[in-house]
Amino acid sequence: MDNKPSSRGTLLSIIELGGYPNFAPLYAEAGFEVLSARSLRKALAAMKKTQPRVVVAEFNYQSDFRDRTSNLESLLAAVQRQPKTKVIVFYEPQYLHQFERVRSRFSIYAALPYPVNSGALRKHLQMIPD
Hints:
- Helix content is 32%, strand content 20%.
- The protein has helices at 24-29, 40-49, 72-79, 96-103, 118-127; strands spanning 10-14, 33-37, 54-59, 86-91, 110-113.
- The longest helix is centred in the middle third of the chain and has 10 residues, at 40-49.
- The model has no long low-confidence stretch (mean pLDDT 89).
């Protein structure tokens, strides 16, 4: 996990599959202390220690799950207990329909399709109130 001093709070970046640029410098530039986790399990453990101001996660559709569509749902259920936390999700455009089902049940601050536009991500981060 990476730590950098900040005035806007902690941003937890969950990179399970990746395949996009390292946005940690962009997060730090936006004023956030950056924590990174490579799995949902590690992210949930980090959330028990600190209440992140922002969580950035991937929607990785998994059709073989019986009761949900991805690990994102477990994360979002945990975030519900932290109402000040904003969630930004990256998703594959071909799975938008499945993602919208998740989005209809949980509060998601912003969703960005792959390839993630760094300008749009920066804009969403800047719009988060201090």
